[in-house]
Amino acid sequence: MLLVLERFIGVLLVLVAVCMAVHGQRVKVRDEVTGYLGQEVILQCIFNPGADSSIKVSQVTWVKSVNGKKVSIAVYHPTHGPSYPQEGTTGRFSFQAPTLKDASLVIRPLKMGDEGTYTCEFATYPNGNEEAETKLVLLAVPKNSAQAVPVTTNYTETTVATCISADGRPPSQITWQSSLTGNVSTSQINNTDGTVTVVSQYNIVPSSQADGQSVTCVINHKTSKEPFRIPVTLSVQYPPEVTIEGYDDNWYISRSQADLKCIAKGNPPPTNFHWSSTDGPLPSTVEVINNLLVVKMVDSLVNTSFICQVTNAVGTSSSQLKVLVRGSPNNSGAGATGGIIGGIIATVVVIAVVVTVVLICKQQRKNQTARDNLDGPPAYKPPPPKLKLQSTEDDKPLDTGTEVLLKPVLLEPSSMVENSNGGHLKYQEVPMTEDCMDFQRTSNPSMDDDYLEQINPIYNELSYPATVSYQDDKEFVMSRAMYV
C-alpha cells in the first residue's frame, strides 16, 4: 500500500511540473541578459496566452531574489498604473511600455547591486500566477595600462614592468610576452562597487643587457573579442661601460696624429670623461678633447698606460690601455695590409682581363657573321625580271587561241649582253603592246637596274658579256639575280 502511494505522489508531482512548464511557456523572457556597469539594460517579459481567450491578466509584478528572499521591485496594475516599491517613481526602474501583455523592465544606470535573478509574474484568472526567470549579468570594461619601472642593475630579482587592468568585471586575465627570462606575479583588488582591479608585475634580475628591451602585457577580458596588448620598453640604469679604441700597435718615435678614443655607454648617458696615465700627469704632447686623446707627436713619454674614467648619475667606471712606443715603424702590420690591398687589385685586374677577352670574342664572331652574310646570297629578294621577246620578219601572226610557249635561256656567267649604246646590261626589260603580240627590244637599262646596282654591288658580277647576241626566236630572258 505504501509503495502504491509513493508512485501516486510521484506521478502527481510530474503532472504539476508539466502544468507549470506549460504555463511558463506563455511568459517569454531571456534566460540571461548582459548589462554594462553605468549603462542601461532592458529585461524583456512578454505574456502570450495563445488561443486560450479565457485567460485574464489582472496584474504584472517583477520580483528579485535578494539573500534568498523575493523582493518586489516593480508592479503594474491597469487601474493604479506602475509602482516601484524600492526606487519610487523617480528611481532607476521603469516599464518600457506597460501593458498586461508586455512587462519589459528598464534599469538605468546599472549598479553592481543590480546583478542577480529576476522573476516576471503575471496574475491570471483562472490559472493563477504564471512566471518566468531571467538572470542579469553585469560586466565592467576595465581600464588597462602598463609602464616600465626604472631600476638599477643588481643581482636580485626585481620588478621591471607593471601592468594594471582596473575596475573590470569579471577580473581580467594578464600574461606577458618577452624574450627575457623572468617571472610574473599577479594580484587582485576587490573594489567597493563590485569591480576588480588586477595588477601583474614582470620580474627579472636587472642587467645592462635588459635595458631598452621590450616586453608586452597581454590582457584578456570578456568585454573584448581580441586581447589588449601594451608594449613596454624596460629602463635598467647602470654605470658606464668603458672601452678605449684607436691603438694600432704601431706607435713609433716622431709619429704624428696618434689618437685614442674613449667609448662609453650607460643609462643615464655619461656626462664626464677624464683622461690620466699611470705615470702621473699627461705628457705635454697630448691634448684632451672630451672623450678623445690626441697625441701630437709620439715620444718616449707616451710609452705609458692611459686611463679613461667616465661618470654618469649611477656611478663611475674606467678603462686602461698600455701603449708601447717603438723606435721605428712596425712594418709587419703594413705588410699584411699591403698584401690585402694587392690581392684586391689583382682580383680587379683579372676580372677586367676576362671581361675584355669576352668582349673581343663576341666582336670577332659578329664580324665573321657579317662577312658570311656578304659572301652569300642577298638577304632580300630582287624584283622579278620582265618578259623580253624578239620578233623577226619571218614571224607569222599567231592565230587566235594558239598557245605561245616561252623558253628560258640560261646564260653563262661569262657572257655579256650589249645594248644599242654599247653598254652592258644586267637584265633586260621588254615592254609589251596592248595585244601582247608586239615585242620590242629595250636598249637602255631600266631604273630597277640602277636601283639594284646601288643597293648591292654584287649585281655587277652578274652582268652579261657582249659576246652573246640575242637569239632570233621568242625566248624568255631572266636575270641571273633570280638564280641566287
Automatic annotation (TrEMBL):
Domain Ig-like: 38-137, 142-235, 240-324
Family matches, as Pfam families: C2-set_2 (PF08205), V-set (PF07686)
Presence of the UniProt keyword Disulfide bond in the record: yes
Disordered: annotated segments: 367-399
SMART domains in UniProt: IG (SM00409), IGv (SM00406)
Keywords associated with the record: Cell adhesion, Cell junction, Cell membrane, Disulfide bond, Glycoprotein, Immunoglobulin domain, Membrane, Repeat, Signal, Transmembrane, Transmembrane helix
GO-annotated biological processes: cell adhesion
SUPFAM superfamilies: Immunoglobulin (SSF48726)
PANTHER family named in the record: NECTIN-2
Family that this chain belongs to: Belongs to the nectin family.
Full protein name: Nectin cell adhesion molecule 3
